[in-house]
Model the fold of this input.
Amino acid sequence: MGAPGPSRALLAAAALTALAAGAVLGWLVHEQRQRPPPQPVRVGAALVLPERTPLPAFRLASGERTMDQTALRGRWTLLFFGYTHCPDVCPTTLALVAEALGRLPPAVRAHVGVWFVSVDPARDDPARAASYAAFFGQGIVGLSGARADIDRLARAVGAYYELGERDAGGGYLVNHSASLFLVDPAGRFAGVVAPPFDAASLAATLERLVQQEEASP
Done:
């Protein structure tokens, strides 16, 4: 005769254990789905995300300098998506950002960067984007590049743009987000500063973000 098989009691106990484990796992999955996502936290003029996602890989250029997602690490960065032919929103916003930077104490200013990312690479090559951004102040970096890289970065932070119809002379406008998008020193999308805002409130917000980062363990 062969070795005796497991008793019915043992088989029943094993089945009950498996059912119980499945029920617990199902409950945990259900609870996770029912739990609302963490809400953004208001920090001055910004809405800051409590849970942050690293930015995807991309490659853009400012003048002759190539820059990728690693260039965003080590400081807080404001991303602004626009184009150099913009008649109103871009020059107004960049002038306001430049004023805000000028209000920061030097120790805080060293921990803040600004990127102007053109969403119109057909007309804005890296040299033009860099020159345009530099007009508004030192430390504002203008970038352009392949459409795929621009779109990858824009999607990661929720920036929007749409090319308008061409006029008789071949020109066109671009509808685009007017918000500033925050990237934290770890290179993660961290939140948004939506208009309207002024230079004083933006400067105060950036100072608070830098101070909070320095105070965190």
Summary: The longest helix spans residues 8-34. The chain has two domains: 1-35, 41-215. The radius of gyration is 25 Å.
